[in-house]
Amino acid sequence: MDIRKILLFCSCASILFFNSCKKEKGQSETSFIWNCTEISPDSFDIASLHQDYALIPLQLTNSSTVGMIDKVAFSDSIVFVLDCRTATGLFAFNAKDGTFIKRIGDIGNGHGEYRELHDFSIDEERKCIYVLCERNRIQQYSFSGEYQKELPLPFLVTNMEYSHDRFYFVNDYPKENNLYVTDMDFNIIAEHFPNEDYGENYVTLLSPFQKTENGVLYRRHLDNHIYNVNTQGEVSVLYEFDFGRKAIDFKDIKEWSPSQLKKIEAESVCDVKYFIDGKDYAMILFYDENRPHIGIYDKETKDVKAYDYAKMKNKRLNIKFPLPKYNNLNENVFSILYYKDIETLVEQGILDKETYSKDSNPILCVYP
Question: 145, CA 20 to 30 Å: which among 127, 276, 312, 318?
Answer without folding.
Answer: 276
